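Sample entry was shown:

___
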Amino acid sequence: MKMYSVIGGIQEYSKRLIDRLEENMNNGIHRAKLWQIGGFALNNTATNLYLFFMNFIAYYLVGAVGVGVVVASSIIMSMRIWDGVTDPFIGYLVDKTNTKFGKNRPFMVIGNVILLVFSFLIVHVTHLAPEQGRLVTFIILYMIYIIGYTFQCVVTKSAQTCLTNDPKQRPMFTIFDGIYNTILFAVGPAVVSQSLVPKYRGFTNEFFHEFWIYIAVASAIFTCIAVFSIASKDRTEYFGLGTPQKLGIKDYWEVLSHNRAIQMLVVSASTDKLALTTQSNATVGILVYAIVCGNYAMSGAVSVYTAIPTFLMLAFGVGYIARQLGQKKALLFGTYGALVCCILSILIFYVMDPTTLSLPVKGQDFAGWNMFTICYLALFLLMKGFTGISGNIVIPMTADCADYEVYRSGKYVPGLMGTLFSFVDKIISSLGVTVVGLLCASVGFSKELPTVDTPFSPELKVVAMITMYGLLIFGLICNVIAMKFYPLTKEKMQSIQEEIAAIKAKN
């Protein structure tokens, strides 16, 4: 047995030596196979499934738990803040972890298990608790759920650095991630609005039970695929300079105060996320489609009709612009395009008749194509395409920021980069639910949220436009400002990888 162990050790050492030699021959560039990038991107989809599920949690709190709209919104915001607070600690754990199962995979598996168990308990147990203890039960369960979410979420960003460091290959993650998100946020709303809500006549306990089954099963399968895909790359030789390092809290402060790239990326991405989180809120869909347009079924139909064109735009934006011109220019391309679409979308809601929105949908009367429908569909798919580029490209850009830190200081801290990004991102985006709740309360909906049966009012239309487009316009403007100071162009990243390779060759 001892001999076998020795032989196994020699084989492992030889394999790593060959990997190192190949890496040096390629100027320090190590690449992943296409299936590995596509498979690992499902890790983000696995967490986005739960994010989509929790977009409806305010309806559970109001309906099953029995709390007011403002209270429900405030609780969800507080939980998002808790989510952000846990990020730095979990990022520190990721940076310090180096097991035989890798740095990233343990957090992916443990995180998804926590998500599965505690999301189940949230929607199956909370309403069964004594009335006076329901709110406390929900908060405790949600706090633990958040830890699992952070475990898995952090790895999506931290593992980018070891998956591939090829500047032309990193944007491929965004293409796959964009495909998956496009499908998720096209199919998901359609299933909810056209199947589950009509089946259970609202957001009932039975609705949440069936909804949870779909989410939990799909997320678990995607996590398993992602773990398998990253397995061969989740090794020390692909971490920074290829050698273990000791990091202390003071090292983190030095990184935070001097890494201009991650500072600007956080500003850009967090303001976008506030807008997109608000836009995807279930109440906003009801405001726009059920109340302003007068047909809630259109919410799912629009997403389905625009899914493929949206993906094609994303593939072009990332596949050509990001790979040929760099990720910074791709983000700006998406930003300017989305900004124009948002302004024009608000305009058509006031110069045309939104109640004429009509699409061929099973079980719905189709009134025929009209100018508002055509204009809205065109602007919606363009907006989703452009925001898909600017929103998704930030994940591989986080890996660029981590490599920049290796180049700048020699410190490999992908966990810090990922969690810093997530910390500010979540703190700001936590305001999304609160913004929706407060805006609804300001026009008379302080005790319950608007539903599909709520009649139209000009005040609700204003709320719909602010939450659907107004906040996004603000976030896009912040993008433009932040990118003025973001230093990592395509050319800069190429020189950084060459410098890192030279340092590794000397070690």
Notes: The chain is about 75% helix and 0% strand. The chain has one domain: 36-495.
